[in-house]
Amino acid sequence: MSDAYLPYAPLNALKSVAPEIWIVDGPEIRMDYVAGLAIPFPTRMTIVRLPDGALWLHSPVAFDPALAADVMALGPVAFIIAPNTLHYWHTPDWIERFPQAHFFYAPGLETKAKRALPAGEKLGETPPPEWATTIDQTCIIGSLLNEVAFFHRPSRSLILTDLIENFEPSRVQSRFWRAAMRLFGAADPDGKAPFDMQMTFWRHRVELRRAVEKMIAWAPERIVIAHGRWYGKDGVAELRRAFRWAL
Description:
Blueprint: E1 14-18, E2 21-32, E3 38-49, E4 55-58, H1 65-74, E5 77-82, H2 91-97, E6 102-105, H3 109-112, E7 121-122, E8 135-141, E9 146-152, E10 157-159, H4 175-184, H5 195-199, H6 205-217, E11 222-224, H7 235-242
Parallel strand pairs: 4-5, 5-6, 6-7, 10-11
Antiparallel strand pairs: 1-2, 2-3, 3-4, 8-9, 9-10
């Protein structure tokens, strides 16, 4: 099956975002939606090097031995993060390669995961002491999706997963998927949570607004996301735009 998106080449390569933070664009995946429809997604991992040199891996892409070697060159892998209840599939493969790493996961994943996961710690509103001095976090709980948003203080980088999706139409090779991304409300330059996902936060809108206000108060300079073009500047303005449906 051919890719639906023109890739963010090179894939499986470390790309610097700011001092001590990198992204890795991984291979495309397909996620089951409804009635046998599988939606294609480009993937992206974020890596932070903590002050003691330990690495923090957020939403790992498909495991690749050459990529793992490049990651090891940055430092020891200490933490592997499943940041929401959809982004967890590849974490066991990375933990198998780095058994010394500690696994942290979004609330609810323990009951929603469709793959056996290693023992780990559930994330909460307060960052654990292992990274509390460098990375802040907040939990967003919905009827379908639970996600933990992270803020890397030294680089002023907000790290999200599915709460903003920003697919570039020029990279979508299928006319059908271009139309679908626009219909779902997740197309650049107005990327955001897709409309169907927004609806699942209706019963949690007060808590969601509080979390968004916390993210805005962090005053991020940039926003790294898992799917589509990420935001290298104007982070606060992009947050207000992308979450206008929740504010």
